[in-house]
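Summary for the steering committee. The consortium agreed at its last meeting that each partner would contribute one worked example illustrating the joint modelling workflow. Our contribution is presented below. We chose a case with several input lines so that the handling of multiple components could be demonstrated. No manual editing was applied between input and output; the record is shown as generated.
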Amino acid sequence: MSVITYREALGRALDEEMARDGRVFLMGEEVGEYDGAYKVSKGLLAKYGPDRVRDTPIAELGFTGAGVGAAIAGLRPVVEWMTHNFALLAMDQVINEAAKMRYMSGGQLSVPIVFRGPNGPAEYLASQHSQSFASFWAHVPGLKVLAPSTPADAYGLLKSAIRDDDPVVFLESEMMYGWKGEVSDQEFLVPFGKAAVARPGRDLTIISFSKPARAALEAADALAGRGIEAEVLDLRSIRPLDEAALYESVRRTGRCVVVDESWPFASVGSHVAYLVSRECFDRLDAPVALVSGEDVPMPYNHALELAAQPLAAKIEAAALRALYREV
Amino acid sequence: MDDSLLALLESMQLIRAFEEKAGMMYGLRKIGGFCHLYTGQEAVAVGAVSVLDLGRDYVLTGYRDHGHALALGMDPGAIMAELFGKATGVSRGKGGSMHLFDPAKRMLGGNGIVGAQIPVATGVALAQAYRGDGGVTLCFFGDGAFHQGALHESLNLAKVWSLPIVYVVENNQWGMGTNWKRVSSEEDFTLTVAGYGMKGLSCDGMDLASVRGALREAVDRARTAREPCLVEARTYRYKGHSMSDPQKYRSRDDVEEYRKRDPIDALKGRMTDSGELTEARWAEIAARVDAKVEAAVAFAEASPEPASGELYTDVYSSPRAAG
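What follows is the complete predicted structure of the assembly.
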């Protein structure tokens, strides 16, 4: 067992999968000579050379589409976007091509590709660089969407994603790259569609994914100080979604707070809240709450940008309301 | 590929007859939605495919894809069945007219978003270069796609990565109802690609020999020197953009002018003059083609609809993967 960063965990997964399978290669902005915009691919160019660690021009539509083409022709590309904000330029290739090829061809084509990069707000990056697009991808049948929040899950899920025969969108975050956690030195995979119990509890269920999963744990700590035991579920995988784990927990606790850093309208969080409300209706002791990003473009000012995010205090307050306790 | 001229003439005639029949079937509502016919452009698909090595090369195209599919030797019955939306269609009835796929015949689609196949084709060529398998990718699109960013990003990638790809712009002069000259800052597309340091070749898309000459040079260059190329084939579509196009943007005379240069008639005339083709031989070819097209329709008619359970198949690689 080693304590490594989320960034190192992703790099280790890439390295191992590239060593294991010659069809796997990395392409994207600054992945090679620069050693990665966020250093995820550090050292890989030196080890694998420029054909397998391929720097691209800043042309997201073109190189994302080239990844799709390489995938249908038998390779296993990992396409790194400097951020998901720039991936908007490539959405046609992800949604109209990668997600549809298998279906439109009557099952003749496979698109084994991973699209990855940081998603969601970081700090001081203002409106165009601080958006969470989880629901944009999760909306689309044909795509799989992963959002790990720990180094171990980042490692195990990226390895699974690279080995998968379907297109996978992988959500990381600038803030998480430096987060540390224990990762086994032995190779392991994390399967898709399995939520993790990040903290067990009996009084209410807090459901989250990606960066806000840590805020959910902070809120659970604060609640514990009030004698409230919150169970924290980390989805890890958004599509496929581990519905059974969510319903089992909420049926047991009777209360649920969903946390998602994207905007509230038609988000992954709002969809999960709807599913839990529908499937656990008879067992709920309070309405399912959604703690989301505020419904505004992200401001630059630090106090305002913090106010726009679902931080621990907001989650704690939502939990107390779900328990009909004084906030 | 049998590249004897007679076989190529027959392939062009098959496309012509198939498309005429598809138009009729559309009128009878056997085919629905968007249906873009290739009539008039036959020399481009047939000429281009004739210079490929179908053991290792690939073709991608846009939504006007029946001609390319037939030129590659895909089964006319399975194509017609796809247009009919039947379970026996090449894409099992889930793709339709715009999405014909058959990797075994080197056909990787059939794309409905204007120009979206261009980055994908560039990636297929990237895979060929990565493996060093000597394959070349042929990417077809129309003049309407020429101004998509997807093309310009792809030209740049192909050049900086030295990819074995040939971009074939079938300039049929109408992007739906918009004449290409109205929307092109530079009318000579070979000059545009020269800005990417890329060789551009022009050919007469109504003339099989001209198409073959340009494509042979381009494919050789891509295969042996890993030099991507663009070929502009000036051509003309006789029918509307799709079946629902009333064609108010051009006169009947314009179409008739091009019909005088019909690629099939021209080749027939030349081969008759040279003694390679006789009336009797042509009658035999035309009858064989008509029989194939009739058989394709009969096959499509007799084929079953997809089972309702097919709705949820092939969304993911395994059924349990769904969200």
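The longest strand of chain A covers residues 24-28. The CA atoms of residues 25 and 51 of chain A lie 8 Å apart.
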